[in-house]
């Protein structure tokens, strides 16, 4: 990953390219609400788990050449206008202005050339786009990571690249690191300290398991960006959450992760997901990201935990109905059995409404 490839355009001009893959992340302490829309500065810090890139990831190829006439972007094989996307432009500009020289296959490109040549980007997700599975997180993280490789950009300060990925989508800044990642909200008005940082590596908690139950892979009605704007404008609970709840929860969550304390980790994860969705309900007009199937998943997890007298599994939902479930390896089989019992694979199951079969239970290990 990361090596610069050299090829040629039909008229012999060099094309330098890089292909990279970046996983998505699932927040266990949620980011919801911005204090600065343009710089994507959050109202609170957040914390996520990065998934295995083999399961839920974006793969992006970026290429640069004097033969290209304009910047272009393809998402999942479809060309998308880059001039309509301020976020893509912001990321491109930020990496481009830090370009250094590169060399590949005996060809060189100077800093000046890299800053003036046009760029082509082709990105693909191996999971439903905009169905609440943080596809923008993986996509922008991958764009920034691969562009930085292509243009020879290295970080002056740790986290610099995550600050650029943040300009694409807030949650993207956390996808540049594996394991458990904190996004510090930061204080500075230019956002240079609003960066992601790894709190524990992927090897830290080997028996933690993540299961993604795809309840619905349709595009969601309210994007995270629009939803959080609405919440910032109208939800009194949001500010309370950002100021009075999340700071303590961040500390408690980091402590739980450090101690590999699944009871504390699970309790905090579920509480934070529920408060995030309560904030959505507290928004006017209210936003509903979860559906009946999501609530059924909550019910079966809560019931199992109550029966066991301890937390066996923990759920979290982002801006969509799909459930992300955490458990320990010892309980993985039992969790899968419970899900399949409640959501049996069947042709008559309304498609997209229920977890369809084991195949849709994308299992991801922490990476
Ligand atoms: C519910 O990062 O998608 O997944 O910054 O506007 O692009 P923008 O929003 P985005 O929001 C993610 C919200 C969330 C919680 C989280 O990932 O922390």
TrEMBL record:
Record has Hydrolase as a keyword = no
Which residue range or ranges hold the Mvd1 C-terminal domain? Answer: 210-367
Question: Which InterPro entries does the entry link to?
Answer: GHMP_kinase_C_sf, Mev_decarb, Mev_diP_decarb, MVD-like_N, Mvd1_C, Ribosomal_Su5_D2-typ_SF, Ribsml_uS5_D2-typ_fold_subgr
The Diphosphomevalonate decarboxylase-like N-terminal domain covers: 23-196
Q: Source organism's superkingdom?
A: Eukaryota
Q: What keywords is this UniProt entry annotated with?
A: ATP-binding, Lipid biosynthesis, Lipid metabolism, Lyase, Nucleotide-binding, Steroid biosynthesis, Steroid metabolism, Sterol biosynthesis, Sterol metabolism
Q: Which GO terms describe its biological process?
A: isopentenyl diphosphate biosynthetic process, mevalonate pathway; sterol biosynthetic process
Record keyword RNA-binding present? no
* EC number assigned by the record: 4.1.1.33
Q: What is the enzyme's class at the highest EC level?
A: lyase
Query: What does the record give as the reaction this protein catalyses?
Result: (R)-5-diphosphomevalonate + ATP = isopentenyl diphosphate + ADP + phosphate + CO2
A GO MF label: ATP binding
One cellular component GO annotation, for this chain's record?
cytosol
Known function:
Performs the first committed step in the biosynthesis of isoprene-containing compounds such as sterols and terpenoids.
The record's section on PANTHER family has: DIPHOSPHOMEVALONATE DECARBOXYLASE
Report the family membership.
Answer: Belongs to the diphosphomevalonate decarboxylase family.
Q: What is this protein called?
A: Diphosphomevalonate decarboxylase
What organism is this sequence from? Klebsormidium nitens
């Amino acid at each position: 990953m990361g090596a610069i490839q050299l090829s040629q355009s039909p008229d012999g001009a060099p094309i330098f390219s890089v292909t990279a893959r970046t996983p998505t992340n699932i927040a266990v302490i949620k980011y919801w609400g911005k204090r600065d829309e343009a710089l994507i500065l959050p109202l609170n810090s957040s914390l996520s788990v990065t998934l295995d890139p083999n399961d839920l990831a974006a793969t992006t190829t970026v290429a640069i050449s004097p033969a290209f006439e304009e910047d272009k972007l393809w998402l999942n094989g479809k060309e998308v206008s880059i001039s309509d996307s301020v976020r893509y432009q912001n990321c491109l500009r930020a990496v481009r202005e830090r370009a250094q020289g590169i060399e590949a296959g005996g060809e060189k490109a100077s800093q000046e050339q890299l800053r003036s040549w046009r760029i082509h980007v082709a990105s693909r997700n191996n999971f439903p786009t905009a169905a609440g599975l943080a596809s923008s997180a993986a996509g922008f993280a991958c764009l920034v990571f691969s562009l930085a490789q292509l243009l020879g950009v290295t970080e002056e300060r740790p986290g610099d690249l995550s600050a650029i990925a943040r300009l694409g989508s807030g949650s993207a800044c956390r996808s540049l690191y594996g394991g458990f990642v904190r996004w510090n909200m930061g204080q500075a008005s230019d956002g240079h300290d609003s960066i992601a940082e790894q709190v524990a590596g992927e090897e830290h908690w080997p028996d933690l398991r993540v299961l993604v139950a795809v309840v619905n892979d349709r595009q969601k009605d309210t994007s995270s960006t629009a939803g959080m704007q609405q919440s910032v404008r109208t939800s009194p609970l949001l500010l309370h959450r950002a100021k009075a709840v999340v700071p303590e929860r961040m500390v408690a969550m980091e402590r739980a992760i450090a101690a590999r304390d699944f009871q504390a980790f699970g309790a905090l994860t579920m509480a934070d997901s529920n408060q995030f969705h309560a904030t959505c309900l507290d928004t006017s007009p209210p936003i509903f990201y979860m559906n009946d199937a999501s609530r059924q998943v909550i019910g079966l997890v809560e019931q199992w935990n109550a029966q066991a007298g301890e937390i066996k599994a923990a759920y979290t939902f982002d801006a969509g109905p799909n459930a992300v479930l955490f458990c320990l390896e010892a309980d993985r089989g039992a969790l899968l059995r419970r899900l399949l019992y409640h959501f049996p694979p069947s042709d008559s199951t309304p498609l997209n409404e229920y977890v369809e079969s084991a195949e849709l239970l994308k299992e991801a290990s922490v990476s």
